[in-house]
Amino acid sequence: MAGIELLSDQGYRLDGRKATELRKVQARMGVFGQADGSAYLEQGNTKVLAVVYGPHEVRGARSKILYDRAVINCQYSMATFSTAERKRRPHGDRKSSEMSLHLKQTFEAAVLTQLYPRSQIDIYVKILQADGGNYSACVNAATLAVIDAGIPMRDYVCACTAGFVDDTPLADLCHAEESGGGTSLAVALLPRGGQIALLQMDARLHQDHLDTLMEAAMTACKGVSKVLDEVVRQHLQEMSILTGE
Amino acid sequence: MMIKTERILHLKSSRGGKVRVVREHYLREHVPCFSALCQAACHNEGKTLPEDVTHYVVPDAGVVRDFLEVLEFRELQGIVFMQTACQAAQHSRGRRLYNRLRSLLKDPRHDCIHFANEFQQYSYCPREKGETQEKWQTRCIYHAAVWYHDHLAGLRPVVMITEDQEAVAEFGSSASGIYVISTQEYLQSFWPDLLAAHELYSSICQALQERESESTEREYAEHFPAEVLEAGIKSGRFIQGTLNVNKHRAQHEAFVRFEGSTTKNSELNSDVLVCGGKNRNRAVHGDLVAVELLPAKEWRGRNTALHEGLGEDKAGEEPQSKPMPTGKVVGIVQRNWRDYVVTFPPREEVQSQSRNSQRILVTPWDYRIPKIRISTQQAEALQDHRVIVRLDLWESTSLYPNGHTVRVLGKSGELETEVQTILVENCINVPPFSEAQLRQLPESSAEQPWRVEPEEVSSRLDLRDTHLVFSIDPLGCEDVDDTLSVRLLPGGTRLELGVHIADVTHFVQEGSLTDLEARSRATTYYLADRRYDMLPGVLSADLCSLLGGVDRYAMSVMWQLDAQSLAVCKVWYGRTLIRSSYQLHYELAQSLLNGEQAEVPELDRLDDEAERCRRRAELLQALRLLTRVARHLRAQRDQGGALELEGVEVRAQLDSSKNITALVPRQPLEVHETVAECMIYANHWVARKIQENFPHQALLRHHPPPRQEFFNQLIDSARTRSFAINTRSNKALADSLDQAVDQRDPVVNRLLRMMATQAMSNALYFSTGACSEEQYYHYGLALDRYTHFTSPIRRYADIIVHRLLMAAINAERGLAPSKVLASNKDLEELAHQVNNRNRASQHAQKQSTELFQCLYFKDKDPLTDERCVADAVIYAIRANGMLVFIPRYGLRGPVYVKNRENQVVSVEGDGSCEWKAGALERQVDRISTTTSTGTHNFSIFDHITVRISVQPSRCHPLNLCLEVISSRPHQAPVAEAQPKGRGRSELVQEVVRLAEEASQQAEERKGRVPKLSKEQREFRQSKQPNLYSILQEIAEMALLDLHACEAPSAEVQTCSTSA
């Protein structure tokens, strides 16, 4: 049963974007003073807060210590008010622990952890409003927070989703499109080298379409990286004015 | 760039509560306006509104919702559908209306565009607090209309039409150049001459008013809402499927054939029975419904008794088969309503009905459709007319669905009306080709014949001098779409076989008007007395037709075969230029092969005797070589298990010949098979080529293996004559059918083959991306891949295949494709469309044949006329009668042995039959009647004598009625139809004589109704209807059905090549 029409004959999506257009991305770095790094990011109506602590010595079990690099600890959570219906979201449910794991993998690939052996980096992200593409918004926000904390990375990690409707790849899905029943592919990319930090797809897709879909997702990631780069530069400018350099 | 805004929606959550949802909404400055008048250099791609309209018209949401049909008139130009209106229509009337709107927007013949007003920065207006949805929509559309007017710098006035009088008052005079008026006013002031639109408008209006004044008494259970249905179907609680009403018991029985592999209900492998009107719950034949199964103790069996058309009597005590899953309709997933032809009741009934209101119950032509309630004031004028009606809705409070009239076809019972009825009922729409379309085509006349273009000569392979090309077709064929060539290559070790097909795609560019028209027709329609071409005559009979002695463009497949083993060494595909040397017909080719001194017209024109002999020898050699190759190919396929359903090909040949008027007893000649085999081979190789090049978007044709349980009747019937039929594979089936020959009665084998054909499903076109590779198999032909390539003049599928093949060739040469190929989804949609049209064409052909059969018997007195008495063979037994087949007329029908007064047929000593009180007993293979005079058995394959008469019917198609008059084979002065030889030609003469008699009657008929000729001119495209030819066709039909009995059902063509 066909639900709503995700892509009209004229090439418009539900919210008026064309297939390759991203949602509006807005971000601010350094929103909290207490943490080592923090960032707030809006990707369309998905709003995320990311906070980074560290690198600091490993807390808790000493067995976690890695002697050649830093441990990255990620925690993902959603605010109770983040969705249309208010819902209590206990910590450690399956979905968020999976998401935490994904974030961890992504940042282990991007952060130069070997510079900080025997230490730990904590990344906390919280979804304030969920409207599709939660994972990618989290990665993008966390990247900014890590940069804000001054932790060296190989490159920006930019993430974006892409879906496939009527043989056309759609970039950056919103909630309505994600729940429309199609495929959704999430990519986290290190844009300069084109390395993929994480690739995730749950639904089925014909193999032949994979390339076009990947292509679309990677183009979208590069678009996001430009925005993030601008945000970082602007932030630095503001900071340098503040510090009077 | 884009501006982000938000819109707030209030939706219902899955648990029924209200949820506030915030959605983003992006606005942009540049939204294409799709008008040729655009001053702002909009990026208009695709369809645009022309400059030469006097005004633009913007329909309001309500107008789109209720009066889309009026807007569908092609005369109305410059329609701008605003996005708001489209979405509102989709929201309130569902997917069906929306799809209709979409196809309207896509149709380039129709002057309308879609404007995404809600995404345009300046034309969008957010909904205000407290504003009703309707008000907001109207405001939005008005706002957008104003923007549109300003965008075009006020060059054309914009007319907004609405049914909302408040809007007219509010916006009516607020801006210059923009007029807000009601639909009626619009039609009256702008299109006063378009009467059809006015009538349709008032008809819909009346239906709408009627709807408001509906009573509230509930007749049916409410349907479940769509979400519940969807969830239920997913969980397996409901079964989704298409409702199929039993034609003979339309009031009581319907079946739901469920689609896809609902594995959750694996114990359900048959259809679901839906008994009675309450359980059917307003579903109409063809709707996609959801059914819920009743508890097993309420299950019932299907009725096995024979039934006359209108079965009004009670079910219950009638014999039933063993109980089968029974259910009730709980919801309708999708309506599949089409246009229906109905007949108005005679005056006395009208009066009795119209006392309470203006509503009238009309009876559809199709038995399976319930009566429709219509409100009209024209009932008086329309009585006994056939009228096209559309259904509007069916509320649970109403016993019958509501509809409105669309168009009057004519008085019922007239030939032209009846033929039009058949067309409408099969959704066949064949208007004459438009001027604009014909203007796009090259011209060719006797004075100025069309010539080959020089640049084409250089780009094509020129075979005019190197190859001996000839065509073999039925006598008098006009549209020759296939020619053949065969030659021994120098060196003598290799043969070259060539199949050259008319290059239609050269003339029919993708996206041109001719292409679109051909696509919507999808095939040439052959009715019993006329045909409707897919392509205009200049193409089908001239430029594309590979006539003898003229240069023509062709698409060729040429194989290099090993001269000894006939194995393929090399295949070449490409565009060529040919000149056919001989335009042979089948009989001529066969007699040449047989070594007879038949005259070849092309040779007789030569003066030089020696030259003539040489040419003759050359042609003969080619024909022999061809026969040898074809035999080899056939043998190869036979090994694979190709089904040899005899007569199949004869019927198909008849189909493919344009000239049905040629009255030749078509004996199955070997040369038929030779040509067919070459065509199959070409189709097969082209299928391989395009499938390899485009694994996901090639158009192929497959024939799925039949379901084993469908063979039960065949196996049971064969067992009565102690033949064993093995249906395990197509090869086993073919072999066992070959063995099942009764020496004394050749009809038996034909009947068995007929049943085998009936058991099979239809061959279908599909896109390779939509099926797995195992499903490509063609069961009937025993080929792993098959497509249609050889008749582009009369099948649209072949045109697509030609394009695919060209794309494949170009891709191999490294050329960039000129156009993006259709995606898998588009192709699958197209394949579906073509399949539908093919089915419609076959139904129409069958129905028109039946119509003519009835007309043939109508004026004969069954009691005295000897022609109404015929020999019949029983081929199936039912609870109160049997199904018989009449070889002489190729008719099939029911014969009752028990009538309504519960009397049974009693057989006297000399075989004659009478109705008497008695008992009836039914076994698997026979039915026996016991009366005071004794017991008589009617067994399968018995010959009996029946009398044929016509059952009059006012609203429905005429029916033939068969009545047993003797239990012995018919002894008639006319020789019975022997399958071969003299008998047949005698029958031909007989039928011709009858036809001539019928001609006089037909003339009288025509004389009575002079009005008819106008309609004929309007609807008919073939050349002047020659009365004699029509009657010859009646005669032909009897013949045709003689073949039809050998392979009667629709899928015949599937197994044959229909070259």
Outline the structure in words.
The complex is a heterodimer of chains A (245) and B (1059). Chain A is an alpha+beta fold and 245 residues long. Helix content of chain A is 30%, strand content 29%. In chain B, the strands form eleven sheets. In chain B, strands 18-25-24-21-20-19-26 form a seven-stranded mixed sheet. A five-stranded antiparallel sheet of chain B has the order 10-9-8-11-12. In chain B, strands 13-14-15-17-16 form a five-stranded mixed β-barrel. In chain B, helix 1 packs parallel to helix 2 (83-106), helix 19 (609-640) crosses helix 21 and helix 27 packs across helix 29 (1027-1044). Chain B is globular and about 90 Å long. Classes of the chains: A alpha+beta (245), B alpha+beta (1059).
Please name the defining characteristics of this protein.
heterodimer; A: 245 residues; alpha+beta; Ribosomal Protein S5, domain 2; 5-stranded mixed β-sheet; 4-stranded antiparallel β-sheet; 4 helices; 30% helix; globular; B: 1059 residues; Rossmann fold; OB fold (Dihydrolipoamide Acetyltransferase, E2P); 7-stranded mixed β-sheet
Outline of this structure?
Chain A is built from 4 helices and 9 strands; from the N terminus they run E-E-E-E-H-E-H-E-E-H-E-E-H. Chain A is an alpha+beta fold and 245 residues long. In chain B, a hairpin with a 7-residue loop joins strand 37 and strand 38 (959-966).
Query: Rg of chain B from C-alpha positions?
Result: 32 Å
In which order are the strands of the major sheet of chain B placed? 18-25-24-21-20-19-26
> Which percent range describes the beta-strand content of chain A?
25-35%
Largest contact between chains: A-B, 25 and 33 residues
Name of the CATH first level of chain A:
Alpha Beta
Low-confidence stretches of chain A: none
**Strand order in space, largest sheet of chain A:** 1-2-3-5-4
Question: What is the total tally of β strands of chain A?
Answer: 9
Helix content of chain B: 25-40%
How far apart the termini of chain A lie comes to 62 Å
Structure class of chain A = alpha+beta
